[in-house]
Amino acid sequence: MFTSHRESFRALKRIPNRRILPGVLALGLVLASAPAFAIFSNGGFEQNDFSGWTVAGGTNPGLLGVEPFTSASIQIAPGAPGPSAIVGQIADPLAPTIVLPRVGQLTAKLNDENGGALVTTLVQTDTVTNADIDAGDGMPHIRFAFAPVMDDPSHAPNEQPYFYVSVKNLADNSILFEQFAYSGQAGVNFLNGAGSWKYLEFQNVDVVLPLSAIGQQVELTIVAADCALGGHGGYVYVDGFGSANVPPPAGAPGIVEVPVNKPLMLAVLAGMLGLFGWRARHARA
Asked: How far is CA 168 from CA 6, 178, 213, 219, 234, in A?
């Protein structure tokens, strides 16, 4: 490790001064713009697995009661978790305008298109800290993106594929954010995919917490379910869990905000700029 650092320093010394600053600035921009997930462990799934998360599930016996359905309507029969996967730069033929991966190099996919009345759930509990405060408004944030893709077989509403996403404050069990919809549900702006499939492009979520949430635990839950009759699938892509802004999809217009709370990266940039200044002064001596 130390030998590698010395060799890198020697190589830097051989570079003419006029060529150092552009490289330093470029490296600094790369460091400053790298995704920062803060509150959630492996929030971007860049470890290429579900480390830090609990994957569970079972089977879908149908939603309880009648519309409007809520989280209390969800019932999951005991069983093995439904399928889950980490995907990279792929095209989804059932939802052709979804851009993958959503953030970084990898995105998680919960459940799949094959049916079987399966349910996949993803849960993580973590603690809100000062590192989750956004410098823009001085408040802690929880941010992420999700995109449901579900077949629409036109079953009874309680038998349709569905998805559910929630953020709960465990200190008082208050729901900070939740969204539930079954495939084809009226009032939800689903896009038409291939055949009878419906989907939403990635939805960016920004949950603003009070300062009193610092030190409190929050629980994030995602549920993706096939239809209850077993013949039709439903899945959800999720990515970018953390406190930093989720940038626009690749190739989309818009301003990418520089993530905050990166003192280590900023310190590296400051040190490299200081090195350039020292070399420039000695070159003139």
From this structure: 48, 9, 11, 5, 24
Range of the domain at 193: 35-251
Nearest to 224 by CA among 27, 55, 79, 52: 55
Would you say residue 18 lies in a domain? Answer: no
Judge whether 150 lies within some domain: yes
The structure's pTM equals: 0.78
85: left (phi over 0), alpha (psi -120 to 50) or beta: beta
Tell me phi and psi for residue 131, to 5 degrees. Answer: -65, -15
* Residue 276 belongs to some domain of the structure: no
**More confident position, 37 or 230:** 230
Helix axes 263-284, 17-33, angle to 10 degrees: 170
Confidence band of 255 (pLDDT split at 50, 70, 90)? very low
Q: What's the structural domain count of the chain?
A: 1
Asked whether the predicted pLDDT for residue 177 surpasses 80, the reply is yes
216 phi and psi, to 5 degrees? -95, 155
